[in-house]
Amino acid sequence: MSKTAYIYVPKPSRENLAIGISRGLWGWRDATLDKATGLADVQSLQTGDFVVLAHVGPQARVQPGGWDTATLKRVIVAQVTKPYFRDQAAVWPDDVYPARIGIDVLDEEADVTGESLGKEAAEALRLSANKQGSALLLPGTAALAQFATALPAAAGPGTPHTDIAAATAISHSGADSAIVQILARREQSKLRKTMLNGATQLPCSLCGRTLPAHLIRAAHIKRRSAASREERLQMANIMAACVLGCDELFEHGYVYVTSAGKIAMSPKSHTTADLALTAKTLDGLPVPIHGPHREPYFTWHRDNIANP
Predict the structure, then answer these.
(1) Of 103, 149, 234, 308, which has the highest C-beta tally within 10 A?
(2) What does the buried/exposed string (b/e) look like for 272-289 if buried means 16 or more CB atoms within 10 Å of the residue's CB?
(3) Measured on CA atoms in the order 51, 227, 286, 250, is the torsion positive or negative?
């Protein structure tokens, strides 16, 4: 059964938190983990387990349940990508923190209340704050599932109905894959909101047709699964791709964008005559969003998806 580790990060550790998120690492002083079951708990974390990092909350020395209605400035949800290991390499400016795990951030929310976290999770974070940021483990992912579904809905114009179904799956089963799916799509929803900037219509970056917002997706140029957190959040890695064909044609590498900023057909597009005919409608069209800041992402797509 998977686990969720709840870790409190105090206000003075803001820089350490930023570095950890950027580097995909979290670490502890040995003295922090020497208490009670701290070390054993961290060593028990496996790839795919979840980590919740909470930053800046109220006074922790209160009675149990004292954080049930508290507000935390930031809550970051991540998954373990590398189980417990030791490393003395300098990462953080104030100490070594040699007891480490690798993490991949799935989502971040601001001003999260104890009500949305749930009582179990809020109490685990309060205990972590009283234990100098040691990890407090909860078995399974039920508490995290409650948090994911308690957040404001990620669904919006153009959000597939499957997103809503995924949220329902979390609330009923707490399935790990459903949690990852809805948190990833929540991230995509934020990128989409930035891309639209209030517009109700938008031109597709590939075919150029101006369409209602619900027919436009915020598509990663370099696939999200292959991108670092920084790359996933860069608007240079996002383009408006319509659901009338362009999104799927690009996603599967049937068409790509050349270094000159024009659409080209890949050998894959000739799989069937009808597919080639569809891709041909885009062949040679200019891509106005192409430029030096997006070219590295288009290069990755050309080399790894369209012409591997």
Answers:
(1) 103
(2) eeebeebbeebeebebeb
(3) negative
Whole-angstrom CA distances from 110 to 7, 75, 150, 259 are 16, 6, 13, 39
Take residue 101 and report the two structure tokens written for it.
């795990």
Assess contact for 42 and 86: CB atoms under 8 A: no
One-letter amino acid for residue 190 of the chain: K
DSSP of 187-201 = HHHHHHHHHHTT-SE
Q: Are 82 and 48 in contact (CB under 8 A)?
A: no
Looking at the predicted structure, is the pLDDT value of residue 188 above 90?
A: no
Residues 129, 190: Cα–Cα separation, whole Å: 29
Does the pLDDT of residue 228 top 70, yes or no?
A: yes
Taking the C-alpha atoms of residue 249 and residue 239, their distance in angstroms, rounded to an integer, is 14
pLDDT at 252 over 90: yes
Q: What is the pLDDT of residues 60-94, one digit of tens each?
A: 999 999 999 999 999 999 999 999 999 999 999 99
